[in-house]
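Tip: read the tokens left to right.
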């Protein structure tokens, strides 16, 4: 892990934990069928390459060491595996779709990887209430497809929908593109089934909208990043599909127009506004270079500094289109227009290509080189200045350019105050690049009273930076909670808590 990084010394070691042995493997074989076990140990001796996808994260930044990957099919199997691991002091890394961006799903030493991908059945769906109960390993997009014929949508959507799992979404408390409309998973998740670090099955798979019977334990696992238990089942409230969905894409001359624009759009669109997304000029140009868009006429875009995608989800197409057309007219005809130009999608395919540009940014960044990704909350007014400050710092350190940091850009969820600051190292991660970026960025975020993780979580990447956003008292109580659930510290060790 953290290969060729200055953090090599800070890879946590786990002297309290044991590595999986052949005897352990023999025991796992009593719980799981052979097809559910991958191990480099004899007698299975699976080639290391077959474990590779489980031992590296989506970015290719975190390289794990697990010699064994287990893919249970039932909650009971998860329980038996964990009970055994607890008895043998074997560390466990819960893994969903492995799309996380903070190294949380990768084994730091030789903890066993418990991949939930084979637990992928829908347990029930009630089209009247919209309550969906599913295994944690269901892929988000599959769940969307499952409920689509009933005219329901998942309350969460993100670019990784084709690979990430609902259990992973819940464990990271993922935000994504619909948070502005449907709120966070802390509100939409009604119940969870979790296997605790001693193997006990905690059945809180409630389908009740209201339940004030004491402490709401499930909330601890939402955003728990697999450090308190393994989520095996999920009950989630899915809203009815909007009857009319539209989007507009706007080019702004200056970043300073964003706040007034946000106000105008909110006022004019009111209840039908469902997303307000931000893309800075560097990110937009990058997307175009990678074949996304163009959405807007090049001449009309001119020297626009940034772009905004606004989505509406309403109940009446004519009504919504009238509002959107009025908005565009108002924006273009003002004495000092807040935008250079804008377009309203005219067809489902245009609607999709506007979203494709926004959702495709993560993959474009990945193709540009090796990204340092900082997912932060800062006041909206500071989005641009934070990005500029980081670029200027790299220039001042002589680290900006094709042999160092080739691009610094910002995009994100304006409506949620969530900036994705992406810093691209064209030719790979280097300790001096990271040393220039950190803790500089964390200090900058803290100076704005922001959060060092808005939606991606802490994982392995930011455990040492937790204190920039959490007080000592908060961290102490987080430790106490961890101690209560996982006194042996076997569950995703080295993640979240420093
Ligand atoms: P993994 O990556 O496998 O795991 C993530 C963490 O959750 C790890 O700590 C793991 O141990 C734990 N975990 C996973 N499953 C379980 C379980 N069943 N029980 C207990 N712990 C578990 N994130 C956003 O918030 N918003 C976005 O808009 C967004 N867009 C993305 C776009 C792309 C292209 C990519 C690659 C990533 C994006 N992400 C986004 C990050 C990522 O997709 C989310 O964090 C997602 O929720 C992770 O789900 P996963 O199943 O891949 O989990
Ligand atoms: C996004 O909003 O696109 C995601 O959180 C992923 C990213 O930060 O690149
Ligand atoms: Zn995001």
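Filled-in amino acids:
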């Amino acid at each position: 892990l953290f290969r060729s990084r200055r953090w090599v010394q800070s890879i946590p070691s786990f002297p309290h934990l044991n590595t999986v042995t052949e005897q352990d493997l023999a025991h796992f074989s009593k719980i799981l069928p052979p097809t559910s076990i991958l191990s480099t140990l004899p007698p299975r001796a699976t080639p290391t390459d077959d474990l590779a996808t489980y031992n590296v994260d989506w970015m290719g930044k975190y390289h794990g060491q697990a010699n064994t990957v287990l893919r249970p099919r039932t909650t009971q199997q998860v329980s038996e595996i964990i009970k055994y691991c607890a008895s043998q002091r074997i560390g466990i890394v819960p893994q969903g779709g492995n799309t996380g961006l903070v190294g949380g799903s990768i084994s730091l030493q030789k903890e066993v990887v418990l991949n939930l991908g084979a637990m992928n059945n829908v347990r029930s769906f009630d089209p009247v209430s919209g309550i969906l109960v599913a295994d944690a390993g269901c892929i988000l997009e599959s769940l969307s497809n499952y409920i689509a014929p009933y005219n329901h949508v998942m309350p969460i959507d993100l670019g990784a929908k084709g690979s990430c799992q609902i259990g992973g979404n819940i464990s990271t408390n993922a935000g994504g593109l619909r948070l502005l409309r449907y709120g966070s998973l802390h509100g939409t998740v009604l119940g969870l089934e979790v296997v605790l670090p001693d193997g006990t099955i905690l059945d809180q798979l409630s389908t009740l909208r209201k339940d004030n019977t004491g402490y709401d334990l499930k909330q601890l696992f939402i955003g728990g990043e697999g450090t308190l238990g393994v989520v095996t089942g999920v009950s989630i409230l899915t809203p009815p599909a909007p009857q009319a969905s539209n989007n507009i894409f706007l080019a702004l001359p200056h970043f300073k127009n964003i706040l007034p624009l946000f106000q105008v759009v909110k006022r004019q669109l009111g209840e039908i506004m469902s997303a307000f997304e931000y893309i800075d000029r560097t990110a937009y140009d990058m997307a175009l270079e990678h074949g996304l868009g163009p959405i807007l006429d090049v001449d009309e875009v001119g020297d626009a500094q940034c772009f905004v995608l606004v989505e509406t989800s309403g109940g009446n197409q004519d009504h919504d289109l009238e509002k959107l057309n009025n908005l565009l007219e108002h924006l273009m005809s003002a004495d000092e227009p807040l935008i250079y130009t804008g377009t309203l999608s005219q067809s489902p395919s245009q609607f999709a290509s506007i979203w494709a540009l926004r959702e495709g940014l993560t993959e474009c960044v990945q193709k540009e080189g090796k990204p340092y990704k900082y997912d932060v909350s800062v006041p909206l007014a500071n989005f641009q200045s934070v990005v500029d400050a980081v670029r200027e710092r790299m220039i001042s350190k002589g680290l900006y350019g094709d042999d160092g940091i080739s691009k610094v850009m910002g995009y994100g969820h304006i409506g949620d105050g969530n900036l994705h600051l992406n810093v691209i190292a064209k030719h790979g991660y280097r300790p001096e690049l990271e040393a220039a970026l950190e803790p500089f960025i964390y200090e900058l975020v803290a100076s704005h009273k922001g959060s060092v993780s808005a939606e991606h979580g802490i994982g392995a990447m930011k455990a040492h930076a937790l204190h920039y956003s959490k007080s000592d008292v908060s961290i102490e109580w987080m430790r106490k909670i961890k101690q209560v659930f996982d006194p042996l510290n076997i569950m995703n060790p080295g993640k979240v808590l420093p």
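Residues 172 and 229 are 13 Å apart (CA to CA). The longest helix spans residues 317-333.
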